[in-house]
Amino acid sequence: MTGDRAPATSWLAVAAIAVAGIVAAFQIGKLPAALPALRAELGLSLVEAGWIVSALAAVGVATGMVWGFVADRFGHRRMLLSGLGVIVAGTVLGSFAGSGTELFLTRLVEGCGYVTVLTAGPTAIGAFCRERDRPMALGLWAFYMPVGLAGMVAVSPAVIEAASWRGLWQINGALALAAIGGAAWATRGARAATGSGIATPMRTAIWKTVTSPGPPTLATCFAAYSLVYISVSVFLPTFLIERQGYPHHAASYWVAVAMVVNAPGCVLGGWLLRRGWPAARVIALAYLGMLISTPGIFADGIDPGLRLACAIFMPFIGGMIPPAVLARTGALAAGPGLASTCVGLVSQMLMLNQLIGPPILAALVAGLASWERANWLTVPMILTGLAAAWALSRLDRGG
Questions:
Q1: Which of 41, 252, 264, 343 is deepest in the core (most CB within 10 A)?
Q2: From CA 284, how far away is CA 5, in angstroms rounded?
Q3: Pseudo-torsion of CA 195, 197, 200, 203, nearest 10°?
Q4: Which DSSP helix (H) or strand (E) runs through 107?
Q5: CA distances (Å), 47 to each of 43, 51, 169, in order?
Q6: Per-residue pLDDT tens for 71-128?
């Protein structure tokens, strides 16, 4: 039941799938506030804590296309619900961890569920949309990261104070269980519950995905944006506190604002696509906006108000990129029935940048003793994204 064969767009199903993505992103957002308690109770070193933080991204880097292929083979709805179930298992088991090793292993389990939801969700949404509504629906799906991350970052300190980090883990398990019930009910009876019927072996599907021009181009369009967004978001609080003299609460507030405005940017991208804008044009416009705003975030001698405006505008305008990329995964997949495998490649690039972006930016800033040198990473990546948007436009024209 895809595209124009759907009698009407089921916005209830779209919302339920988007909520599943938000709950998956909660598993990233619950870590920052919990780290001090985890280190104190489990005796974790800073390095061990870093591995626990990066476990979900590491799973995504290693297995994104694998889970995407499994979703293509066995059904996107089925794998979405299964991924949520794996998150329930991982986070509940993690709440009973007695050592750093045990917690790390349960984070790997959470990571498998997280990546499964991320790769199955966008394609599952397509089963409930008319073709003209699909870009807007994917814009709503792209809410998952800004809303899930910022929302959990905001509430987790209060939850930890009231119920400890173990209670936070168990509450996340309950939320994931509730998301299973909501998504199962809202998507009941969908043909998306069945697989594609494609008999392509996994190795062949992955090889075709990485060697076809479409999926790597889309992955590059997404990857450049994600590296800039993640790297700036991670270090903006430190910069505002250490170099600009902001109090901790004020720095946290502005970073939360910068995270949240990414969501309306996603909606704007979906709206422009629905109005008939080509995906490549939407992506190029977003990168041009990032090129104008990003250098001002860490620039020396810039007006503080203008700096904050740049820090807020960059994630807003960049938010147009995820729905534009996801809207083309079906058409540019390596073959019929391989849309989620394509999304898996995009997810792998996204999570690779979650791993390498912040350390690279930190090395540039520390090695050159200047925050402005962060632009040595961000500007080239934005230019790479512009080049990928141009390549995408050629693919869409058949060039």
A1: 343
A2: 31
A3: 10
A4: helix 100-126
A5: 12, 6, 21
A6: 888 888 999 999 999 999 999 999 999 998 999 999 999 999 999 999 889 888 888 8
- Say which amino acid occupies 62: A
For 358-384, b/e burial (b = at least 16 CB within 10 A) is bebbbebbeeeeebbbbbebbeebbeb
Q: What share of the chain is helix, strand, coil (3-state, %, to 5)?
A: 85, 0, 15
295 with 375: CB under 8 angstroms?
A: yes
CB neighbours of residue 213 within 10 Å: 13
CB-CB contact of 332 with 218 (8 Å): yes
Distance between CA 101 and CA 99 in Å, rounded?
Answer: 5
The Cα–Cα gap between 281 and 278 comes to 5
Residue 65: how many CB atoms within 10 A of its CB?
Answer: 26
Distance separating alpha carbons of residues 342 and 205, to the nearest angstrom: 10
Going through the chain in order, the beta strands assigned E by DSSP cover none
User: What is the DSSP secondary structure assignment for residue 10, as one 8-state letter?
Assistant: -
Sign of the C-alpha dihedral, residues 238, 243, 248, 252? negative
Asked whether 173 and 30 are in contact (CB, 8 A), the reply is no
* Cα gap 109→63, rounded to integer Å: 12
Nearest one of 62, 344, 351 to 206, comparing CA atoms: 344
CA–CA–CA angle 306, 379, 152 (5° rounding): 65
- For the entire predicted model, the pTM comes to 0.81
In the numeric block, the tokens 């690039």 are attached to 349
- Contact partners, residue 375, CB within 8 Å, separation at least 6: 294, 295, 298, 299
C-alpha 397/C-alpha 260 separation (Å) is 34
Over residues 185-212, the pLDDT tens digits come to: 999 866 544 455 556 788 888 898 889 9
- The residues, ordered by sequence, that sit 6+ positions from 364 with a Cβ below 8 Å of its Cβ are 373, 374, 376, 377
